[in-house]
Design brief:
rod-shaped; OB fold (Dihydrolipoamide Acetyltransferase, E2P); 4-stranded mixed beta sheet; alpha+beta; GMP Synthetase, Chain A, domain 3; N Utilization Substance Protein A, Chain:P, domain 4; single chain
Length: 421
């Protein structure tokens, strides 16, 4: 008849896949270790457990000697013949082990071995199940708090959301549903540990894949993501289809797609940056929402660049506590410096014309006068000597306008002879 221990082991084998034979073997080893404490650490012990009744038998193996040099390994001839009348010097004799505490030791050992084996199997099972899922989104519920870390119930197992992987602005309560990414799976001594994250860039990447089908289909590609979790993120995107606008696709109709992602991230602001293989253009884009006037690559080897913005855009380019420039630098991989350029005061209407004398020529407006002056035709007499080809090369000056300008300039020169030097 099967013992209760064997019945329990067979049930555990069915439920958890722990083989009965492995557990019995471990119990045998543990029992031998316990016996050594009573009979000596060097004694040779043979032990066995009956796989049906769970009866444990053990014996001490000693060599018959006369005289005895090592009591742990040898037995005297006279003592040996009490057990075996025909015992002879030199033969191995199997003596029954002291069995007074077998039942108690066996029960304690079996319990310890089972708990250890179950923990090992569960640890390996958890590791094997979740290790291939690193980087995937999961949903769970807040189970309990452990200091500032949160234990998340994933259903069949638990995971940990460490404080460093949480969004700082969020507050959690027991039972609250939480979406996170499986950041890493460790096989620790106390058991496997599934570590979740809501702060890692890969979490934001997975949310884009969830909300923007074009990202999943690789039509729009996310090149890089940097985050200040809960506050701001910059996402560099590019389109693999010339007909598709990468930024507009991620934003969605009336901002529906980007709004869903921001809501999941406690209102984290997301700057969608158009990627460019040209470093200067990419840097200029990365400093969004600031409007950049120019970018100069100052040291290609050290990856240093200088961006010039207007004075009113300087604070925007740097951002609160340097957040914007810091994220732009991480996104592009370039060390960035920002310089402000004072805005040039716009000339009053007609100022350019009056300052050059062109305002005295009829038919030339202030804007055209400014264009002519910047091109070197600010003197009415120099203008009168210009050719139609020279004037039509200027922006905004067509053939008809050039003809009118030349006619007016020649008329002015005719009526106002140039003073002699």
């Amino acid at each position: 008849m099967k013992s209760e221990l064997i019945v329990a082991l067979e049930q555990i084998e069915r439920e958890k896949g722990i083989k009965k034979e492995e557990v019995l073997k471990m119990i045998e080893g543990a029992m031998v270790s316990s016996l050594r404490k009573h009979v000596g650490k060097n004694v040779v012990i043979e032990a066995a457990i009956d796989p049906q009744t769970a009866d444990f038998t053990a014996c001490l193996v000693k060599k018959v000697a006369d005289p005895v040099a090592d009591p742990e390994l040898e037995v005297s001839l006279s003592e040996a013949r009490r057990v075996k009348p025909d015992a002879a010097v030199g033969e191995d004799l199997r003596l029954p082990a002291p069995a007074a505490d077998f039942a108690r030791i066996a029960a304690q050992t079996a319990k310890q071995v089972l708990l250890q084996k179950i923990r090992e199997v569960e640890r390996d099972s958890l590791y094997d199940e979740f290790k291939p899922k690193e980087g995937e989104l999961v949903n769970g519920a807040v189970h309990r708090f452990m200091d500032r870390n949160i234990i998340i119930d994933l259903g069949k197992s638990e995971a940990i959301l460490p404080f460093r992987e949480q969004i700082r602005r969020e507050r959690y309560s027991v039972g609250q549903n939480v979406r996170a990414v499986i950041f890493k799976v460790d096989k620790a001594q106390r058991g496997s540990q599934v570590v979740l994250s809501r702060a890692a860039p890969i979490f934001l990447r997975r949310l884009f894949e969830l909300e923007v089908p074009e990202v999943t289909e690789k039509i729009v590609e996310i090149v890089e993501i940097v985050r200040d979790p809960g506050f701001r993120a910059k996402v560099a995107v590019k389109s693999n289809d010339p007909k598709v606008d990468a930024v507009g696709t991620c934003v969605g109709v009336r901002g529906s797609r980007i709004r869903s992602i921001m809501n999941e991230l406690a209102g984290e602001r997301i700057d969608l940056i158009l990627y460019s293989p040209d470093p200067a253009a990419f840097v200029a884009n990365a400093l969004s929402p600031a409007r950049v006037m120019s970018v100069t690559i100052t040291d290609p080897e050290a990856r240093r660049a200088e961006a010039v913005v207007s004075e009113e855009q300087l604070s925007v380019a740097i951002g609160k506590e340097g957040q914007n420039i810091r994220l732009a630098s991480k996104l592009t991989g370039w060390h960035l410096e920002i310089k402000a350029e004072a805005a040039k005061p716009a000339p009053a209407a007609g100022a350019a014309a009056k300052g050059t004398g062109l305002g005295e020529i009829g038919g030339i407006g202030p804007k055209t006068a400014e264009i002519l002056a910047n091109a070197g035709f600010g003197d009415p007499y120099r203008l009168a000597q210009a050719t139609p080809e020279e004037l039509t090369a200027l922006e905004g000056v067509g053939e008809k306008t050039a003809a009118k300008i030349l006619a007016a300039a020649n008329e002015y020169a005719k009526d106002h002879p140039k003073p002699s030097a």
